[in-house]
Write a structure and sequence with these properties.
Distance between the termini: 37 Å
Shape: globular
Largest sheet: 10 strands, mixed
Structural class: alpha+beta
Strand content: 25-35%
Number of strands: 48
Number of helices: 14
């Protein structure tokens, strides 16, 4: 009998989370070499210090569920306590696994329990001040400490130190949220960092997103006017007593050595202004002053149990370049988001200054125009002749290169490191194949995600924007959720989307929303700063994606009112079920736009109606998934009603779409809006429109993500591969051949002659068009979910060899365990190896197969349509077939 074990016991999708307010999901994975392994029952226990007398014991539960297991509400869990959790499973074959143990740490029950003040040394006169502040307090530990938990947050960006040592690895904390409606706090265990006797707690805070310059108009104070820090240090002593140190007006503050730091413009650190006593109980430098409390509604506070921003990788300098103009430039070889960490030696007053940027121009010189007003400059001023190490504390940059503007002495490559910074999401998916250009495309997709998933899903990380555009997020969400575990990341962002919705249900263009100003003069769009089709639909499509990828119904419940509000917003602005509202983006930056316009040729009312139908249909399905039967029926009818109106308005009497654009055909097909009797017309028209462009796309944000799907779903996988593999402009591989290491905002961000696209909007790290990764994983590799058994409970494996590829290897770490589809092709023979995780089932489809040569114990039968199909359980299988 094969040995079965348990791994990755998670609470709320996180391994050993620190700071949960409740348990809504427990899950684990099974590991076994045995085929067709299924769970028969489980036993789950939660203990306080052990399991002799557990707080919760499920007993033996006859259930196959190994994910989304719920525990009863009302468990007597105390706040700020570490609990042990363990699970044991019995399989249908009668094998019982060893216990597998993990732990979790509770947070405060709610923000209402927060008692610490937000404190600052800033005044209203400092509204545009971008200098850092220290805030400190001494405490004495007079008896042995059993456990110490530090809860901290800020109105701004902060670091926190205990006895001069940074607590945790978090960067850019507490992250960007809708602050006054939703603010995260972080919890760290600091028991080992405390020492007997005197200790000093120090907060280090700066403006950040809270009050710094943000947005197109360069406005300040979006959420408040004074950066502030707050913390609570909870001590549990060995004798059972407790005490809490909180920020209040007894603390002291002083200006810090970061004399300037802004998200867009970078940071200046003047070491001459360091305070020798910043981590001392005594105030020996004379620079300390009283603090003031900043009013804040603590109901907005919520603990952040995971997915915090951290330094994830470090890259060395690939080359030091001297440009034709004589500039010294560091090339890290990879476009990334984060900062440059460096060591410098000089005399007092000497300066090290770097300007971060993305690209060299066609002559090999520094190119800064696409940064717009963002300065992306790091400046360090030496205090003495000792070697110093520095990296930014409160700002991040998007860059591949760094121009050395000033440097004491001769710069050495070994003194510089690029720190890659993004939210902490475990890697889950990979893709490789026999085509090196496609492998580089996959690399670029992944690095585009790394560069833009720094706490919020931003459009770009370098220019004076870096906003959570909802349209970009929704078209990339499925690709992102293959590459990394986005469950916690997107759940947090969706919380802000709901918080920022208008009372009528409208969805902002960006989340967190800073486009709707405090006055008419502050508004970027005077007539339409929210609620655009494809952008607002993130409210529905992203939850649907999380439901499909993770099988998560909790996200449906949590976002239900938000989703419903968005559907109702569209309904309230519809006429004959065709809706529109103020400014619409349409098929943004499509190449069929009029000269000088960013708006593609596909009619706005068509894209609005298509997304209205699509989101309504998804919402109806999600309502049914959580037992909201009445809503499921109502919105199912509404979906059919919208689809019927779509057909009346946008098809002509011959069964062709009136709008003859690539995107119109694509979304009509992919969103299921084409009557069966017209489908061939629309497919033929799409092929003609593709041929008209010599096999190239001219689509924008709306059409591009679904183009390959619209072809392969309708019998034209060969054309989909041809489109994917185009190497000249416009194409995905054109960017690759031009040296891209991330996805570009524009198909020709750098033109064939080396000149640049318009500088006003030309990001070289813009993940949206990387949504084609979804097709690579779900069609080329063939790893997909079953809508009726989401979360890979039932897996659909349907690889599509083609494109001249001789090998494709797709791997995914699902919530149940590893899924793999690896095929090689030689002539018309395909060898396929698949891996299906325990406690799941799969349908293995062989599209285009004419004969199965090796079945490996599987019972293949002719599939509906073409090819062969077999049903299977877990295990590794190798089959061969002829095309």
């Amino acid at each position: 009998m094969a040995m079965t074990s348990i791994t990755k016991l998670k609470v709320n999708y996180l391994e050993q989370p620190i700071g949960i307010e409740g348990i809504f999901n427990v899950g684990w994975q099974l590991r076994s070499d045995e085929r067709n392994l299924r769970q028969k029952s489980y036993r789950l226990q939660i203990g306080d210090g052990g399991f002799d007398a557990p707080l919760y014991d499920s007993g033996t539960v006859e259930s196959g569920n190994s994910t989304h297991v719920r525990v009863p509400e009302g468990l007597p869990l105390e706040p700020l306590r570490a609990y042990a959790i363990r699970v044991q499973v019995t399989t249908t074959g009668g094998e019982t696994t060893p216990w597998h143990e993990s732990r979790f740490v509770t947070a405060l029950r709610s923000g209402a329990e927060w008692r610490a003040d937000f404190i600052t040394i800033e005044t209203e006169a400092d509204q545009r001040e971008a200098r850092s502040s220290y805030l400190k307090k001494a405490l004495r530990v007079e008896k042995p400490v059993k456990a110490a938990w530090l809860l901290s947050t800020a109105l701004g960006v902060y670091h926190v130190y205990l006895n001069g040592k940074k607590v945790g690895q978090d960067q850019m904390a507490p992250g960007w949220t809708s602050y006054n409606r939703h603010l995260l706090y972080q919890i760290h265990e600091v028991t080992e960092a405390l020492r007997p006797g005197e200790n000093v707690l120090t907060g280090f805070v700066n403006a950040g997103w809270y009050k710094g310059k943000m947005g197109f108009l360069g406005l300040y104070n979006h959420y408040g006017t004074r950066a502030a820090f707050a913390c609570e240090l909870h001590l549990e002593y060995a004798d059972g007593t407790r005490s809490v140190l909180r920020t209040d007006e007894s603390w002291r503050g002083a200006p810090g050595p970061v004399v300037f730091s802004e998200i867009y413009d970078g940071e200046t650190y003047d070491a001459r202004q360091e305070l020798a006593d910043w981590a001392d109980a005594a105030d020996t430098t004379g620079g300390w002053r009283p603090v003031a409390a900043v009013p804040f509604g603590t109901a907005a506070l919520e603990a952040q149990p995971g997915c915090r921003v951290r330094v994830q990788q470090r890259l060395p300098v690939r080359e030091i370049i001297t440009t034709p103009k004589g500039d010294t430039v560091l090339d890290f070889g990879q476009n990334l988001t984060g900062w440059v960490e460096f060591k410098v030696r000089g005399k007092a007053g000497d300066e090290a200054r770097l300007r971060c940027f993305e690209a060299l121009d066609r002559d090999g010189n520094v190119y800064l125009d696409n940064l717009r007003s963002a300065k992306q400059t790091l400046r360090y001023v030496c205090k003495d002749e000792a070697e110093a190490a520095y990296h930014p504390f409160f700002s991040f940059q998007g860059f591949r290169y760094a121009k050395i503007v000033a440097w004491p002495g001769t710069p050495r490559a070994r003194d510089f490191t690029a720190c890659v910074v993004h939210s902490d999401m475990p890697a889950t998916g990979s893709f490789s194949c026999s085509n090196p250009l496609l492998n580089q495309l996959q690399h670029n997709i992944l690095w585009g995600m790394k560069g833009n998933f720094l706490d919020v899903p931003t459009d770009c990380p370098q220019r004076d924007e870096r906003l959570g555009w909802t349209g970009d997020a929704q078209i990339f969400a499925r690709t992102a959720s293959y590459l990394m575990d986005t469950s916690t990341f997107f759940a947090k962002w969706l919380r802000d989307l709901a918080a920022d919705q208008t009372p009528e249900g409208g969805v902002p263009h960006v989340v967190p929303d800073i486009l709707i100003g405090k006055s008419e003069e502050d508004r970027f769009w005077k007539d339409g700063d929210h609620s655009a089709a494809a952008w607002g639909d993130a409210a529905v499509i992203v939850p649907w994606t999380l439901y499909q990828v993770y099988g998560d119904t909790e996200v449906i419940r949590r976002q239900y009112d938000s989703m419903k509000g968005w559907i109702e917003f569209m309904r309230s602005h519809a006429n004959d079920d065709i809706w529109s509202y103020r400014i619409q983006m349409g098929d943004w930056v499509a190449l069929d736009a009029e000269p000088g316009s960013y708006f593609g040729a596909t009619p706005i009312d068509l894209t609005c109606a298509a997304y209205y139908a699509y989101s309504t249909g998804l919402f109806a399905k999600m309502a049914g998934a959580i037992g909201q039967t009445a809503d499921a029926e109502e919105y199912g009818r509404l979906h059919e009603q919208i689809a019927a109106s779509y057909r009346r308005h946008f098809f002509d009497e011959t069964g062709h779409l009136k709008a003859q654009t690539q995107t119109a055909q694509i979304i009509t097909l992919h969103f299921g809006l084409c009557p069966a009797e017209y489908r061939q017309n629309v497919v033929d028209d799409l092929l003609k429109l593709l041929e008209k462009e010599d096999g190239h796309l001219v689509t924008g944000f709306v059409g591009t993500p679904y183009f390959c799907f619209a072809l392969s779903e309708n019998g034209h996988t060969r054309e989909a591969y041809n489109l994917l593999l185009k190497e000249d402009y416009p194409s995905w591989l054109y960017q690759v051949k031009m040296g891209a290491t991330t996805i570009w905002e524009h198909w020709d961000g750098i033109k064939p002659d080396g000149t640049m696209w318009s500088a006003d909007m030309n990001s070289f790290n813009h993940y949206a068009y990387g949504a084609v990764g979804d097709w690579l994983y779900r069609v080329a590799a063939g790893i997909d979910t079953d809508e009726n058994a989401p979360g890979y409970r039932h897996i659909r494996i349907a690889p599509h060899p083609g494109g001249g590829l001789t090998e494709v290897d797709g791997r995914l770490e699902s919530v149940y365990g590893p899924v793999r589809s690896h095929w090689t092709a030689a002539g018309e023979t395909v060898n396929l190896t698949v891996e299906i995780p325990p406690n799941t089932t799969a349908t293995l489809l062989l599209p285009g197969a004419t004969a199965v040569l090796k079945a490996d114990g599987l019972a293949f039968a002719l599939a509906e349509g073409d090819g062969f199909a077999a049903e299977t359980g877990s295990g590794v299988y190798t089959v061969s077939y002829r095309l």
